[in-house]
UniProtKB/TrEMBL annotation:
Lineage: Bacteria, Pseudomonadati, Pseudomonadota, Betaproteobacteria, Burkholderiales
ABM domain residues: 2-92
The organism's place on the tree of life at top rank: Bacteria
An example Gene Ontology molecular-function term: monooxygenase activity
Organism this protein belongs to: Roseateles oligotrophus
A Pfam cross-reference name: ABM
Keyword presence, Transcription: no
InterPro entries: ABM_dom, Dimeric_a/b-barrel
Keyword tags: Monooxygenase, Oxidoreductase
Protein name: Antibiotic biosynthesis monooxygenase
Transmembrane segments: none
Keyword Thylakoid: no
Length: 97
């Protein structure tokens, strides 16, 4: 299992609309992706324009090759991309313990 963590920064005042959009994007697009296991979104308290998206994938290739290289990625970006104040910072992690 691979954990993808994406740090997302949005413009001030867009929180409510972004939260609707990201929920829609996860439920209608990402959840259909090969190897998708689960997703969570955390909202910053000290930085209210900052969100952390956590997605569990069965393998790294499921995210980097199948999802990002397939037709679902443009659909995902069309939903959430307009809210990005800058490109999200994305990293992948493996379970150790």
């Amino acid at each position: 299992m691979i954990l993808e963590i994406a740090e997302i920064q949005i413009p001030p005042g867009q929180q409510a609309a972004f939260e609707v959009a990201i929920a829609h994007g996860i439920n209608s697009v990402i959840s259909q992706a090969q190897g998708f296991i689960s997703a969570r979104v955390q909202h910053g308290i000290e930085s209210p324009e900052r969100y952390i998206l956590q997605i569990e994938w069965a393998s790294l290739a499921d995210h980097t090759e199948h999802f990002r290289g397939g037709p679902l990625f443009p659909a995902w970006r069309a939903i959430v991309g307009p809210f990005f104040a800058q490109a999200p910072r994305v990293e992948h992690y493996e379970l150790v313990i």
